[in-house]
Specification:
Layout (H helix, E strand, L loop, with lengths): L3 H16 L1 H7 L5 H15 L2 H10 L30 E5 L11 H9 L2 E4 L2 H10 L8 E3 L5 H13 L4 E3 L12 H10 L3 E5 L4 H9 L5 H7 L1 H9 L15 E5 L4 H12 L6 E5 L4 H11 L4 E6 L7 E6 H8 L13 E5 L4 H28 L15 H61 L1 H7 L1
Helix pairs in contact: 1-3, 12-13, 13-14, 16-17
Keywords: Cytoplasm, Methyltransferase, rRNA processing, S-adenosyl-L-methionine, Transferase
GO molecular function: methyltransferase activity
Organism: Leishmania major
């Protein structure tokens, strides 16, 4: 007995012999026409439609071929569900979400499931994150910090050289940006370990993106009419390409000391023609904005709160106005918890020109000071060596040489006294700065206590 496929094949061969025009012409008779009709009727009944019959008749009019079946979209391999290859003896730098778990990439999840060990700087936070996405982590987490980096580094190198695969993660965002992961990566690369990246979310790049301060030089010259108008007006004699080239500065976290913060704002942020990005904690936000307002009163500051979370917000204005905003009652919740990123805009043409003029004035004053010192300096010994006829010239030269040596000795003693006095002033200034830092540290501690519990803080004070 023939199965279904065998029955279809036999019916097709029978139809070919019956319906072929060549066989009908050879017989010269229409006696087989009713038989062909009955055969076609049976074939239609067998295959289900007359349209299928006509197509099949045309297909089988020549030599029989097996039909090639195409893959349906359901049968095709989906690249998003294709398993990720985990490189052995390699370190995978894996980015994790900064707030929204849906920002986890499929590749990051595959890598975290497939590696042998996961290196983290905060084991409890990483364990909680992996539990939320159902990734087993029992016995796979390795703690790495500044305290144990010297002992852990050698063990990690041995495990990787032994064929183990590892992933480096941080509490949120991309590792090696403002944490100890960069030092580990450098040491592993020196040991010949391959390091690969699994990119993803980053608070730094997200804050830059929503602030809009990443215009490149080409886009600025072609699309920004304001920059062209400023260049045509001759503001500071600078083109718009100078200020919008896509560069930025990342300073991690500003120092706790008030004096150190002011020093960074004056020396790095003030002359910068590109945006400067800093991570910040909520309880210090008002103090930092006050420092920025004192140094950069006209500079725009972008403050991003809780990126990718439910309470995400962006506030942009001058630092002085932002201080007034955050001191309001309705904004108190924003300075109590969460993660903040500060983006300080770069200096514009007018501000840059003013800063350059200020630096030029400093250089002019320095040159005048050097010129005055050169005028007060003793004349060279060669100017006193005047030749005279006979032995008088030799005697005059000798006396001039003695006077020059005496003057040089006096000048050296004066310089030594001046250096000792300068050294004493320097020591006093350092001592005063240490005292100021201690006072500011104590004030910072009291501010933290005030923000935590006002009742306990009142008892301490």
């Amino acid at each position: 007995m023939l199965g279904w496929s065998g029955t279809r094949f036999a019916a097709a061969l029978h139809l070919r012999s019956v319906c072929s025009p060549r066989s009908a012409a050879a017989q010269g008779s229409h006696a087989r026409a009713p038989r062909a009709l009955s055969s076609s009727s049976s074939f239609v009944a067998l295959f289900g439609s007359a349209r299928g019959f006509s197509g099949t008749a045309r297909r089988f009019s020549g030599t029989f071929h097996y039909r090639k079946v195409r893959l349906t979209p359901e049968d095709a391999l989906d690249p998003l569900t294709k398993p990720t290859n985990i490189d052995k003896a390699a370190l995978h730098v894996v980015s994790v979400p900064i707030g929204n778990l849906k920002d986890f990439s499929l590749r990051a999840l595959d890598v975290l499931r497939g590696v042998d060990y996961i290196i983290t700087t905060d084991r409890p936070a990483t364990k909680t994150l992996l539990d939320l996405v159902n990734i087993p982590n029992q016995g796979r987490l390795i703690h790495y910090s500044r305290g144990n980096r010297s002992t852990s580094r050698e063990k990690l190198v041995e495990l990787l050289k032994g064929g183990r695969s590892m992933a480096l993660v941080t509490t949120s965002g991309t590792p090696c940006i403002g944490d100890v992961g960069g030092e580990l990566v450098q040491e592993l690369q020196k040991s010949g370990i391959r390091v690969t990246a699994v990119p993803g979310a980053s608070a730094l790049m997200s804050a830059l993106a929503i602030s809009g301060l990443t215009t490149s030089a080409y886009e600025s010259a072609k699309n920004d009419k304001r920059g062209a108008d400023a260049a045509a007006d001759g503001e500071a004699g600078l083109s718009p390409q100078t200020f919008e080239d896509g560069s930025f500065f990342f300073g991690n976290v500003l120092p706790k000391s008030h004096g150190a913060r002011l020093r960074i704002l004056r020396t790095i942020v003030a002359p910068a023609t590109f945006p400067c990005v800093f991570y910040e904690v909520p309880y210090r936000l008002v103090m930092v904005l006050q420092d920025i307002a004192s140094v950069l009163p006209h500079r725009f500051v972008y403050v991003t709160h809780e990126l990718t979370k439910l309470n995400e917000s962006l506030h942009a204005d001058t630092a002085e106005r932002l201080v007034g905003f955050y001191l309001r009652q309705e904004a108190q919740m924003l300075v109590k918890k969460g993660q903040l990123v500060l983006v300080i805009a770069g200096a514009g043409p007018k501000e840059t020109a003013a800063w350059l003029e200020k630096e030029a004035a400093k250089r002019r004053r320095l040159r005048r000071t050097v010129s005055d010192l050169m005028k007060d300096a003793p004349p060279a010994a060669s100017s006193h060596l005047e030749s005279a006829p006979g032995t008088g010239g030799t005697t005059a030269a000798a006396s001039s040489s003695r006077e020059s040596s005496v003057t040089t000795a006096k000048e050296e003693r004066r310089q030594r006294r001046k250096q000792r006095a300068e050294l004493r002033r320097l020591r006093q200034r350092k001592k005063r700065e240490r005292l100021i830092r201690a006072i500011e540290s104590e004030q910072e501690r009291l501010r933290v206590i005030l923000s935590i519990n006002r009742n306990d803080a009142s008892r301490l004070m």
